[in-house]
Amino acid sequence: MKKIVFLFTLVLISLSGIGQVVDFSGTWKINKEKSELGMEFSMAPNELILEHGENSLLAVRHSTFNGEDFTFTDKLTLDGKECENPGWRDSIKKSTAVWSDDNKVLTVESKIPMQDGGEMTIIQKYKMEGGNLSIETSASSSYGDLTEHFIFEKQ
Fold first, then answer.
1. Which domains does the chain have, with CATH numbers?
2. How confident is the model at residue 61 (pLDDT cuts 50, 70, 90)?
3. Exposure of 69 by Cβ count < 10 A (0-12 exposed, 13-18 middle, 19+ buried)?
4. What SS3 state is found at 22?
5. Strand 56-65 to strand 106-113: parallel, antiparallel, or no bridges (unpaired)?
6. Which long-range contacts (CB under 8 A, 24 or more apart) does 41-44 make?
7. Which residues touch 25 (CB under 8 Å, ≥6 apart)?
């Protein structure tokens, strides 16, 4: 009987970690050597500050483009509901964020209107890899497609 109780306890302890949501909170710096960036253009932020709540993610991205510094802030709910945030040049970016079934990967899909009347779709997959934050990014618009893989190290 003691063996059965012991085995049952071990099973419960091992199952307790399954399905737990990953916490992405922290200040993250890009590691350009480990990342796979676009050849001519990259959407990679230099620094990413994430505040991960129970059902929310606040993402502050510090980027540089053409020698100019930019800061973008997104407030997302993690329940698949659409969120609106400021986009590029006074546009409105509409995003949804959903967890994978195992709660290890957060997929954020965003749509941003383009100046040519079209729309850019950006899909980002956030996950932890060996203590680093990995973000696989793909963007598609009338200007073409871009795929990148960012590796961030916690500061």
1. 21-154 (2.40.128.20)
2. very high
3. exposed
4. coil
5. unpaired
6. 41/146, 42/148, 43/122, 43/137, 43/139, 43/146, 43/148, 44/148, 44/150
7. 50, 51, 52
Q: Enter the tokens of residue 83.
A: 């969120």
Burial class (CB in 10 A: 0-12, 13-18, 19+), 137: buried
Q: Which region, left, alpha or beta, applies to residue 33 given φ > 0 means left and ψ of -120 to 50 means alpha?
A: alpha
Question: How many Å apart are CA 79 and CA 72, to the nearest integer?
Answer: 22
Adjacent-strand bridge partners of 36: 149
CA distance 3 to 8: 8
Name every residue whose Cβ is closer than 8 Å to that of residue 36 and which is 6 or more positions away in sequence.
148, 149
CB 24 within 8 Å of CB 54: no
Q: What digits encode the pLDDT tens for the residues 17-30?
A: 445 789 999 999 99
Q: What is the pLDDT of residues 94-132, one digit of tens each?
A: 999 999 999 999 999 999 998 888 999 999 999 999 999
